[in-house]
């Protein structure tokens, strides 16, 4: 701070010398001598730039002649320009000098303050130095050297600082003296200029007086000018009033004339309306009559239908009654025949046959009668024809050949005689009659045969040669010329019948046989005639079968026979003849045969069927023709005649196909036509044949349908679809592409050309209709339309061709001619489009009228009455010269009342204005019409609200409010917010932009309060046409008591599952010593209130990824609080459920596609399997409701599940979550967190109450949170980051694995945080670097040591994210009890190599599963070899030792004697576990022992048991007595004891005895002897093998025992298997017993089972002073 002050002082000192050189010296300014005047004269020549305005001022004064600078106030002399300039320059310099004086005074004051402050610092430093010296002396006295050294260093630093301050004081003092000197110099300078200042002030006073005088003069001039202007205005008003009166009189006259005209028009209007009403009434009457007729027709139709139904019902009932009556008669007849004993079945069959023969005979007679009538009618018709020919040929010479016509009369007489019973005629005459008759009636017989073959053929044959056609010749030769046929020669007319008969016979050549004579008569022609003459199969289709019946008649003069030789060689593959030789046939007799035609190729065939007869061979011609096209139009020349320009006239022509083959036609307007182009532009013949094959089965119905709907597009669509199918199925090769037979590319180009022709209209006046191409079916007619719309006068012509896809059909040329004429006057632009116009804006356009008349004409432009306020044409009337044009100006000013004034022309909803305008032409009855079109739109810009309230805004933050600005116009409009205050910001583009038509733009208004006060202002938005739209705004600026160190937090890109943390501070700037301004209420913002602590609370949005710590608290004045903001992005539950639904829907679609694919595959397989069918029969078709189609339909559509049904943790939920993580890209979210601040602490009366929270104190924290895809995801544990070990027994270890995957595109180096070294959690494997797509498994262990809950956080870190995993578990102390309390577990005696088991039950009463182990001491690896527990036994005295080892005798086989099953396991919570302990010895011993320990996994013992058992080789055993052997069999040699003397009884025994020693000790006490008692147990082992149920035992020589004082009870008995029997041995000494004498005897004990065992029991007795 001191250094800065010094710098500022030096700057002031350096600036001091500058301004002094600028001011005038006293010699230059005060002196009034010549040099001073010369100086100002020089300044007149060169005026400074800042005084150029004076020159303009003087110029104005010179112009007025009476300027305010022209004269001086006191002297009256003219004031010079230089004097005025000198006054202003002096004033400026004096002001600069005053300013410099004030600056110097300020610098001196600052220097004095600095000097004062520096001296205060020096004084305080001196005091500190003195205090520190005293302190040093005191510390020296106290001998505290450390403090002395520290104080000396401080003293040295203080002295240095004091020295620098003193130097600074000297420097400041020097500067102060310098500045005071300069101030004195400036004051002296001001004193020198005091006179000059007075002079300048006097000149300024004079200047102001002159200026006021000039203002008064100018005011007088303005008043005079205003009076003159008022007089002019009054004169103008008088003139306008006169003109208005004149116009009113003229208007009154026009009104009167209009009323008269209106009366006349009303009269004619009434008559017109009356006439129109009459016409409408007549039309209604006609419609009513027509409707009545239709009703009557419908009623009659209904009555006819009812009558027909009634008659049908009557007929059906009658037929049913007849059938029942007939059945009843048959039944009665059958019963009567059966009663008579006749075979009723045979009789009924014969009766039916007779009835059938009778019926056929009647039918034959009827048919014969009808044929007679036909024959007679044909003969009469032929006679009339012969008569007419005779009349026409009377003048012609008779033919040289034999005339057959005279024979017709004779034939008629003979035929009538033949038909009626008459005497027989001669044989020759009858043959002639029959031959002539057969020739005449050949066509009729073919028709009848065709009718008979209808049941066998696929469709009826067309009758090609009827009698009417063969005889229908015109009576006048002129009729033949119309059909473009040549006239027949009169000579050939006579022999025309013969020519027709020979026409079909000529190709085969069988009629040119030589003439033969039979019975003296010459026979010409074949011996047999066929009916029909030619076997004709017309319009056949490949693949179908046709049958035709032919009748051969013998026309020779002899009895003849015929034999079939065969058909032509090239017809053998297609035609077969069914013919049975009839034998000999008399003249006139006939036989029949059947021709079956099965075409295999699509081409014409000709041949013959050859026969042999007695006269000679003959043949019948065969002709097979395919379907062909026969196309013609009704007229090839169309003439429209004369028509006026602007009209539209249409003519139609009919295109007819008389053939049986459908074809595709198109209209070609090109002038030149070549065969190549005609063929290339049509579809190929392959397409036609294919179409014929496909549609062959429905030919008849297609013909009917096509004839019924000629104007539809169905044939065209069908042909187009078939053509596309053929293009897909038949690929085009290079070789076939060049030929005319396969041209798919040309077909495609033809289609494209046709579509192009349909897309745009012909540029000429004559154009074709929309229907330019299509399909014409067999025997179908199509109407083609040609339109003539003349646009220019003159002749118009159009030549086009109708082309066909059939290669055999030639294009048909069509010529069209028309002539157009025009009117003399017309508007060049009949539709004047003003585009889009705005209200209250003027638009202009020109109207050009053209005339082709030879004289001048008067034009009158008429505007309808409704549009006269908005539209005007100038001039209204004009003359257009001959052969010239006339231009008028259209002015259009749409006003807001347009929708009311012109409702008929203006559509208020769309804004479209269409006004019909009329130009009246003098001498022309029809006016010229034109139309003015425009779209009128508004120019308004609209805000969605009228007022914006920003509310309360902190001065530390900004408030944004959005408004929507809508362009209601149909035109783009520029807009801009002008005059925006500094405390508000308009975005985007700073409030400027362009709005498209009907566009709505969101405008953001950002308000930033700079002071705590109320704001009320208006924003002005101007449009491009300078319209102003205002928006009112208001706000209140407040100053919150707390402040955030940062109001915007921008988090970095954070992966999903990771977190980012930001730290900021919440500061309370208020202190106890400073009073703050409270912003509540806003009107008293400056009120001073005492400072109080503030409570704050952050309110987080619901379901956000943001957490704030602390979220609430309090701040005392002057304190600040650290706030931690954490962003932890995660997937929303709703997003996961929606993804799960999407995956389910996708799986459903895939299943449906798979089912659809399988179904199509099955259908294709079924189609590929060939089906063998009979000849002429169709293959069976799978019905629509078959199983194939019903398969997918039976599946009911599964409804999509509800998102609420997908529970977290389910399989669908986890799949959706993993899918979102793998497909996650990025997500950006912004949050605005409010921090509410209280007005103080809660009230003192109730501290639990909430304090007052003010909305004015609210702070806002904006958070920008971008989330990205996590590079590391958990793929195990269902994707959860929480690893719960649950409850684990204390001391046990549970291991779990967690797998993570790298889903990023970079390798990741994994590290982990350090877990608690003394805690239960640990990582058992190391982390490594994983490549993209690789996995890594973390092995985690949990081993609790105490009974409590544990929880730790493990962080797996990588370069891009930190994956947090929560480890939790609970340690539980296990509680397991055993059914056996512990101690000894005795298995007793067991037969060797057999086993005995006992079950122990472990009960787990804890809440966790507990593991256990069953440990045997014999199997323990830690058991010392050689037996450490046997050491005491080995060192002790043998007889006195009672040591029993832990592990006793073991089996010889090496297997354990004792075993526990299971050895280890786990017990579920609350469950129990059985442990089976088995004793299985393999040899006899009584020293089997072991120790069983059951312990848990944490090494705690549940129980310890000593296992003991004995094994015997016999079922009976003796237990008790003293030990005779060592418990460990393998350590000591066999024990050598003294054997008692053998008795005679023992010698008698055969088997070795088992020694047993029983020691009895009697107790001597108080002169009395207590008898000694011992117990022995005899047991019987229950064996697995079947044996006896009980055993026996017996003592021998019991009497000898009694002599020595021994008694045994019982002496003998039985023992059940599995039981024991106790034997009491008692010794009571006799009277003669000697003290300390041992009584010993040996007694045998016999045990009997399956075998007998003898125990040699030695009883030893003595008396002891103390009993054991």
Record the SSE blueprint.
Elements: H1 2-15, H2 17-22, H3 26-29, H4 34-45, H5 52-64, H6 81-141, H7 145-192, H8 194-340, H9 344-392, H10 406-419, H11 427-440, H12 442-452, H13 467-471, H14 478-482, H15 490-494, H16 496-503, H17 505-508, E1 516-518, E2 521-523, E3 528-531, E4 535-540, E5 546-554, E6 562-567, E7 575-578, E8 590-597, E9 605-613, E10 618-626, E11 631-633, E12 637-644, E13 649-657, E14 663-668, H18 675-680, H19 685-694, H20 699-708, H21 714-729, H22 734-737, H23 744-759, E15 766-768, E16 773-776, E17 780-788, E18 794-804, E19 812-821, E20 825-827, E21 831-838, E22 843-851, E23 857-862, E24 871-874, E25 877-880, E26 885-892, H24 898-901, E27 912-921, E28 928-937, E29 941-943, E30 947-954, E31 958-967, E32 973-978, E33 984-987, E34 992-995, E35 1000-1008, E36 1014-1023, E37 1028-1038, E38 1042-1044, E39 1048-1050, E40 1054-1055, E41 1060-1068, E42 1076-1077, E43 1088-1089, E44 1094-1098, E45 1106-1109, E46 1112-1115, E47 1120-1127, H25 1133-1168, H26 1187-1194, H27 1211-1223, E48 1226-1237, E49 1259-1268, E50 1272-1274, E51 1282-1289, E52 1294-1302, E53 1308-1309, ...
Parallel strand pairs: 4-10, 12-19, 21-28, 30-37, 39-49, 40-49, 51-59, 61-68, 70-78
Antiparallel strand pairs: 1-2, 3-5, 5-8, 6-9, 7-8, 9-10, 11-13, 13-17, 14-16, 14-18, 15-17, 18-19, 20-22, 22-26, 23-25, 23-27, 24-26, 27-28, 29-31, 31-35, 32-34, 32-36, 33-35, 36-37, 38-41, 41-47, 42-43, 44-46, 44-48, 45-47, 48-49, 50-52, 52-57, 53-56, 54-58, 55-57, 58-59, 60-62, 62-66, 63-65, ...
Helix pairs in contact: 1-6, 1-7, 4-6, 6-7, 6-8, 8-9, 9-10, 10-11, 25-26, 25-27
